[in-house]
């Protein structure tokens, strides 16, 4: 849950250059201090999401779409246990125990078991050491305000290039927990935001992270067959600052229903998909590679901060997805090469 193309600051040099120079000596330490304070706050935001117990309802807004979810997070010893409930539309529930995730799909009476690949679920959206961000983002303290009844301090991350978005993050002053995240494009317009509307921090009953669907007798358990794989045959050039964090292969099940009744049966087929994941610590870009036997139409699309490009390359179909500007996704897509052994 992410992301603003930063503002380019224009420094105006007027005739009072000497007066400006005289003030600069005093202004510089304050700027450095502001930057250091912002980095300290980012570290606190990252730590709070992993180590605190909390439960709250948040709203995710992407363009004209709004979705509501509830997240409950417990740290039990060294184990992170998390329950994410989708409150709008068809019910979905995700139970995470460290990197193991179970998705409950009640209308299909199915539990999907898989491994977590990226670590960017709100409010734990910082996946890297915050000090690594300063090479690609200008980091500074923002204004103070209130979110979900809590006093907050904002921190602003302005991108130093046009290949990533900018962000404004609002952290609870008392605990550092991220309560709101806004993503901005190159026009400084909000393209995506996530915000708690209600939040409890501290003493959370461990029973609240248990699955709602306790009686799953007769449900189908589907394991996502995933394995680490060496995809060195594929050369991909990500934007500066994006590092490769995962190379995995998985089987994806496609089910086509037959019949028209409520009890209709489905024909399930499986296809193998490889995935390469890059991240700069805030945003992630995934390259999906699969055999190109299916009939598909090449093209691109945007959903809020998310940009997607799909195209055919030889005998393969490539899909590039990321919460980065379209220029970054196109750059990645155009860079992909397959080096046959």
Automatic annotation (TrEMBL):
Cleaved signal peptide residues: 1-24
Domain MucB/RseB C-terminal: 232-337
Subcellular location: Periplasm
Pfam families noted in UniProt: MucB_RseB, MucB_RseB_C
Keywords: Periplasm, Signal
MucB/RseB N-terminal domain ranges (all copies): 37-211
Family: Belongs to the RseB family.
Protein name: MucB/RseB C-terminal domain-containing protein
Organism per entry: Herbaspirillum rhizosphaerae
Native organism taxonomy: Bacteria, Pseudomonadati, Pseudomonadota, Betaproteobacteria, Burkholderiales
